[in-house]
Every structure is written in structure tokens, then in C-alpha cells.
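How it folds
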Amino acid sequence: MSEREEGAQREYSSRKQEDMEGGLNRLDGDMDTLSRRLAQTEQTVQDLRAKVDDMENRSRRCNLRLTGLPEGCEGGSPTKYVEKILQNILGADTFPNGVELQRAHRSLMSRPKPGQPPRAIIMQFLRYQDKERALTAARRLGTLRYENNTIRLYPDYSFELQQKRRRFDETKKILREKRVEYRLVYPARLLMKHAGKDLIYTDPGEALKFYYLAGTYHEAKL
């Protein structure tokens, strides 16, 4: 091969290498762009899910769940039946204007088999204030009984929000044992008293970490 041919070959190889390096650089740039777009898309989906869940829970703000009543005891008029129960177990003075529910029905899961726990009854109050009065009275009274059945009232949260709030269960148990004053506030935040101040945590681990590191605590009966 002549010197001219060798030079041409080297020039061709050099251009080929430059083209390959340029292609790899463009590919790296495209991958970076796709990674950023994927991260942005995932964040958008996460934000949208949070908004939808917030809207769902806001639509349930007048709802409560009632558990412990045998299947079928409500008969054909569950709304009237639940209104009667609330008046009976919580006291007529709990509701200055009487109990008014827009509707009440069993949860939409499959009817339980014999021996399984009954489905919850979901009720929607006409007035948000009455829902809050019912929940406050139930917490004050503690154990509720109706016709030899132990019943409980709970807020009607979405499944996703219930899971977020359950993350605090172990932390709440420890704080109760230590007689530390706390509240779990909407949507899923732990409010804890310390030195006369309200401290708010969204992470149960961080709340416990502070508790063990602080050294002194504001304690009170729950």
C-alpha cells in the first residue's frame, strides 16, 4: 500500500471514529433527556394521584364508618335505622337539630360468609358539624354498645390515606405508653407536644427519633 493510500486510510478511520464518538455523545444526550422526562412524568403522575386522593377524601368529609352491627339488622331502611342508633348511643343532646343523614349503606365489598365479620355501614351526614359531633362524642364515650353489639365509629378515609395513617400505629402505641400528648391530624401528620409547643411530623420515624433524643417531654393523659 502506498503512502498516499495509507494516509487516506488513516483519514477515513479518523473520520469514522469521530462519527462514532459523535453518535455516542448524541446517544448519551438523548438518554439524559429521556431520563429527565421520565422523572418529570413520574413526578406528574405522583402529583396527580395525590390530587385525586385528596379530592376523594374531601368528598368523604361528611362520612363516617360504623362497624360491629350484624348483617341485615338495618332492614330495608338503613338510613333511618342508623339515625336511630346514633341518637340512642351518643345521646340526643349530641345533635341539637337532630340527626339527619343523606344516606347510609353497607360497604360495597362482597357479603361475608357465616362466621366472618359484618361489613361496615357507611353513612353520610347532611351537615359536617353533626359528623364532627358524632365522632367527638364517640371518642369521649369510649366503648359503644347497641343491642349487645360492640360498635365503633371511624372517619371514612380512602384506602391510600388509611395506609399512610397506619404507618403511625407503632409510634402512637409508644407515645401512649409513655403518656405523651399527641394527635394524628389530617391528612396523615403526627402532632406532638414538647415544652409547650406543637411539633408536627409526617414521618413516624422522625417523631420517635425526636422523642428519644429530646430528653424531656410534655406528658399528659390521653
